[in-house]
Prior knowledge:
Mean pLDDT: 86
Number of helices: 10
Number of strands: 16
Strand content: 25-35%
Largest sheet: 8 strands, antiparallel, barrel
Low-confidence stretches: 1-17, 426-433
Order of helices and strands: HHEEEEEEHHHHHEEEHEEEEHHEEE
Structural class: alpha+beta
Shape: elongated
Helix content: 10-25%
Radius of gyration: 26 Å
Amino acid sequence: xxxxxxxxxxxxxxxxxxxxxxxxxxxxxxxxxxxxxxxxxxxxxxxxxxxxxxxxxxxxxxxxxxxxxxxxxxxxxxxxxxxxxxxxxxxxxxxxxxxxxxxxxxxxxxxxxxxxxxxxxxxxxxxxxxxxxxxxxxxxxxxxxxxxxxxxxxxxxxxxxxxxxxxxxxxxxxxxxxxxxxxxxxxxxxxxxxxxxxxxxxxxxxxxxxxxxxxxxxxxxxxxxxxxxxxxxxxxxxxxxxxxxxxxxxxxxxxxxxxxxxxxxxxxxxxxxxxxxxxxxxxxxxxxxxxxxxxxxxxxxxxxxxxxxxxxxxxxxxxxxxxxxxxxxxxxxxxxxxxxxxxxxxxxxxxxxxxxxxxxxxxxxxxxxxxxxxxxxxxxxxxxxxxxxxxxxxxxxxxxxxxxxxxxxxxxxxxxxxxxxxxxxxxxxxxxx
Length: 433
């Protein structure tokens, strides 16, 4: 599950469409932040290294044109300074900000509105990507702004591009937001060491308890902590990974036997065992922390047909992939056995393998019932049990009921430790231009 409706409320429609918010959320390595005051002068800046297309954008026609930037005076730079900006220390007094629009695919297109895109004299918090020093204009640090609608803060609030949940809700000042951003890790730091990357942010939370409920702090924390937890989960080597013989049985009907091979590492998080539990966590403002994870599972009729790696999203065989949910912490852990709650979510893939007829129709009906039980919050996302014995054997069993009657039984036995090659790590944000 992603950040959810709470973050969506904070973002304007164009930003939601591309999930393109860099102000509220984790930062790329080229981004710098500062308090500044917009000047009245503009300068020809060119595109630098930005690869763009001339097409319709969210804020104008996006026609090919000369690329200009606006001069902005710098009052205070953030402490994290990428590239050549780092060597300049606190001597930076002026920068050039080049605004960019973005197309339907979220890639840059030329800014069609005035190059004086910030009213002169406007003061606030700015977030922008620093160009390589070779692309600076007349030695002035030059930045590309890929979310001009969000800059500067708090002007974005006044313009309605960042909406307070309530008009009267307190929000951070520009200075307070800069202090918070000084404590935020970059996306690379979180990927490399999710736990260590949060040390500065944890210290900020201890030092600024009154600011944690002020907009946009809750959304920033949710984004950063969710991303850190995502990478923590993705680093797990699952003890239940491997190749399984799976049997799905319907009451008073036949059964189907097939094979499933999982990935070694999770693809995504299992946020909570039920939607109600997830809602309760958010309602109480608890930090994101997944209870478990999902492994990808390739499905085939025979052991020989099982894939060696996960399918590309364009591959038609993807429809024969399922998922295996696993609760991270065992519910029982003794010398004789270890038990994890979990679930084989493979009914859809099994329907692809089943021949047309009564059994396939029964699988479809059972699948519909189980989905409804999730919807009405009467079913857990991990309603079965993986049991590993001291000899290393692993078995899984689950029987689902509806109004007291059995609907479907899934049993599985691990027959080898062979697993699918790990899927590529997808980015949660679109590529930084």
